[in-house]
Specification:
With 695 residues, the chain is of the alpha/beta class. The protein contains 22 helices and 32 strands. It has a seven-stranded mixed beta sheet, with helices on both faces. Helix 7 crosses helix 8 and helix 12 packs across helix 13. The longest helix has 17 residues. The chain is globular and about 70 Å long. It starts with a helix and ends with a helix. Bound molecules: ligand 6R9. Ligand 6R9 binds next to helix 13, strand 26 and strand 27. Pfam families: ACAS_N, AMP-binding, AMP-binding_C. It is an enzyme of class 6 (ligase). InterPro entries: Ac_CoA_lig, ACAS_N, AMP-bd_C, AMP-bd_C_sf, AMP-binding_CS, AMP-dep_synth/lig_dom, ANL_N_sf. Keywords: ATP-binding, Ligase, Nucleotide-binding. Its EC number is 6.2.1.1.
């Protein structure tokens, strides 16, 4: 019987069934408890394989069955999905606010002909099913003691008020709205309000500079901007409206004017009287929104109508406006949420990501709410007023599912176990990670110390472009290996290819691509369909190219090795920076590490490692040698760093991603070519690094 190669590489899973004793050499397996597996949505590797196989062999049937659980004003046509990668014939026009914005060569459609609304499916559908009084959002403020909540009915009321306001201000189906808000409930409320009327939201993370914001305004020309006057994160106040004002001025000089700026008053951070104001353009949220009716008819949209635009940075050039459409994204985020987090209606779910990133779109707002989940939204900094805040919040709300990023795990690990162990955390049942490979030592700390060695960790690999999880554990379904994202989600066919684009089989490592389509895939880059094709579909003909490197081990587990643009080639050995970093941070005295390639006379490239030590540990020559030995031991002599550069801190974006571009410049002593450092969470760390560059 024909099984496509997508299913082939997971067939070994048959051998790794739960409860079976694992061979002695497989000590790195972490097996979910029988109790967990018994209650899980997917209880065994067999059950997964059966569903996976169907999802690959019959994607139309598989996804149609799931899509039928949602409300469609009109069901999709006969062709559930349609993709045209190779032929490059179909010319399809997509319209944004009546303006044709691109022509499709690479065409991708899911549920075409279907008519629905994602906001309706998040709210009205759940309320009609009896969830009206269930808490949709628990909100925890930056200051302990400040909190709030909304039931699904209350949430719908507020969404409708904002939707009515937007309509009243001329926002129509297809118009763009920029949202520049911190993690207030008003952020998901506004996203859902836009979706309700068919407007396209573009959330800009409220940590971006005025310059970045204006760049986005100029690109998508929003009808309205929604912000707040200020916010407190930790002990620091950030004056968001000043940033918005500067961005609006800058855009006006570039010919894009903004007529309406809706400002939520956040009195904890800044008083109304102290807020700079432009009459006629600026309007207080609290002055207008409550006056609008709490019902608002739904704008029914096509499955392929754009839902949102989210800008993400490429390795070069200006940010890319990733476009997601409605139907496929809806079905995909809901399904991935349900299975990867083993969702149960009694769960209290907390994702620490900001709605300014894709994670906050798919897994704070849409995925959870499509499942009728109770979502915790936290406004503040995870270590404010102390390093135990996250666990205080977990205990306060009895959080069951905690989804965060490796960078936070490592920083909490560095703060010491006492902050964790003094809390209960008994409510936790699933932990999860996203954003970068999670190194095995952080994985183990998360698993053992935070989760009492009983909560599976879903290490979810995916991208802004993919809309939802692509490679992820399904907790309870199979044993985990610390640091591996494990296996593909339903419908996803990851392939690992070599430089020439040839598919590699079995144990291998190379470029990670995806064969065929999945419903959550992005459809284009806003206004630049050519860049979409060049970046993602040209490098390896016939595949979507992820830009990541990946290794598949003898058991078929996937190990993401970092962006391929960060791969270092040392004497012909391809070494993922993430692998070296993982080895370094496994040393008990190393808190964090970032590795870049530098030119090397003999080897082509050398390995240059920036290392942050655990608090209180002094730098020493002995430790330097010890770290190098650790890497030699774990990967091999060829991977030993040529240079260890002590780093009190690493240059990170506000979302916690290390900016290697800057590190590469520091490593090669090009201090006057550091480029733009304004998007760093703390620009000062760069000066510290330069000072220590000869240490
Ligand atoms: C969701 C998100 C995407 C890039 C991606 C990869 C890295 C994300 C990961 C991971 C290893 C994981 N990445 N999750 N690497 N394991 N679990 O982060 O989207 O901001 O677009 O970043 O992040 O390199 O290509 P985005």
């Amino acid at each position: 019987k024909h099984v496509s190669s997508g299913a082939g590489h997971v067939s070994h899973l048959n051998a790794v069934t739960l409860g079976e004793s694992v061979a002695a050499e497989e000590v790195d397996f972490v097996i979910p408890s029988k109790d967990f597996a018994a209650q899980a949505n997917i209880q065994s590797s067999e059950q997964y394989l059966e569903m996976y196989k169907r999802s690959i062999e019959d994607p139309a049937g598989f996804w149609s069955d799931i899509a039928s659980e949602f409300y469609w004003k009109q069901r999709w046509g006969d062709k559930v999905w349609d993709e045209n990668i190779d032929i490059r014939k179909g010319k399809i026009k997509i319209e944004l606010g009546g303006h044709v914005f691109c022509f499709f060569d690479h065409l991708l459609q899911w549920f075409n002909g279907g008519i629905t609304n994602i906001s309706y499916n998040c709210l009205d559908r759940n309320i009609e099913a009896g969830l009206g009084d269930k808490i949709a959002i628990y909100w925890e403020g930056n200051e302990p003691g400040l909190d709030d909540s909304l039931t699904y009915s209350q949430l719908r009321d507020q969404v409708c008020q904002v939707a009515n306001y937007l309509k009243d201000n001329g926002v129509k189906k297809g118009d763009a709205v920029i949202i520049y808000l911190p993690m207030l409930m008003e952020l998901p409320i506004t996203m859902l309000a836009c979706a309700r009327i068919g407007a396209i939201h573009s959330v800009v993370f409220a940590g971006f500079s005025a310059e970045s914001l204006s760049q986005r305004i100029i690109d998508c020309k929003p009808k309205v901007i929604i912000t707040c006057n200020a916010v407190k994160r930790g002990s620091k106040a950030i004056y968001l409206k000043d940033i918005v004002d500067a961005a609006i001025n800058d855009s006006a000089q570039n010919g894009v004017s903004i007529d309406v700026s809706l400002v939520y008053e956040n009195p904890v951070a800044l008083k109304r009287v102290d807020t700079k104001w432009k009459e006629g353009r600026d309007i207080w949220w609290q002055d207008v929104i409550p006056r609008y009716p709490t019902t608002c008819p739904v704008e029914w949209v096509d499955a392929e109508d754009p839902l949102f635009l989210l800008y993400t940075s490429g390795s070069t050039g200006k940010p890319k406006g990733v476009v997601h459409t409605t139907g496929g994204y809806m079905v995909y985020t809901a399904t991935t949420f349900k299975y990867a987090f083993d969702y149960k209606p009694s769960d209290i779910y907390w994702c620490t990501a900001d709605c300014g990133w894709i994670t906050g779109h798919s897994y704070v707002t849409y995925g959870p709410m499509l499942n009728g989940a109770s979502v915790l939204v936290y406004e503040g900094a995870p270590n404010y007023p102390h390093a135990g805040r996250c666990w205080d919040i977990v205990d306060k709300y009895k959080v069951t599912t905690f989804y965060t990023a490796p960078t936070l795990v490592r920083s909490l690990m560095r703060d010491g176990d006492e902050y964790v162990t003094r809390s209960s955390r008994k409510s936790l049942r699933v932990l999860a990670s996203v954003g970068e490979p999670i190194n095995p030592s952080a994985w183990r700390w998360f698993y053992n110390v935070v989760g009492y060695s009983r909560c599976p960790i879903s290490d979810t690999w995916w991208q802004t472009e993919t809309g939802g999880f692509m490679i992820t554990p399904l907790p309870g379904a199979w044993p985990q290996k610390p640091g591996s994202a494990t296996f593909p989600f339903f419908g996803v066919q990851p392939v690992i290819v070599d430089e020439k684009g040839a598919e590699l089989e079995g144990e291998c490592s190379g470029y990670l691509c995806v064969k065929n389509s999945w419903p959550g895939a992005f459809r284009t880059l806003y206004g630049d369909h050519e860049r979409y094709e060049t970046t993602y579909f040209k490098p390896f003909a016939g595949y979507y190219f992820t830009g990541d490197g990946c290794r598949r081990d003898k058991d078929g587990y996937h190990w993401l090795t970092g962006r391929v643009d960060d791969v270092i080639n040392v004497s012909g050995h391809r070494i993922g920076t993430a692998e070296v970093e993982s080895a370094l941070v496994s040393h008990p005295k190393c808190a964090e590490a970032a590795v870049v390639g530098v030119e090397h006379e003999v080897k082509g490239q050398g390995i240059y490692a920036f290392v942050t030590l655990v608090d209180g540990v002094p730098y020493s020559e002995e430790l330097r040698k010890d770290l190098i030995v650790t890497v030699r031991k774990q990967i091999g002599a060829f991977a030993a760093p040529d240079k260890i550069h002590w780093a009190p801190g690493l240059p990170k974006t506000r979302s916690g991603k290390i900016m290697r571009r800057i590190l590469r410049k520091v490593a090669s002593r090009q201090f006057d070519e550091l480029g733009d450092t304004s998007t760093l969470a703390d620009p000062n760390v760069v000066n510290q690094l330069i000072e220590l560059s000869d240490s």
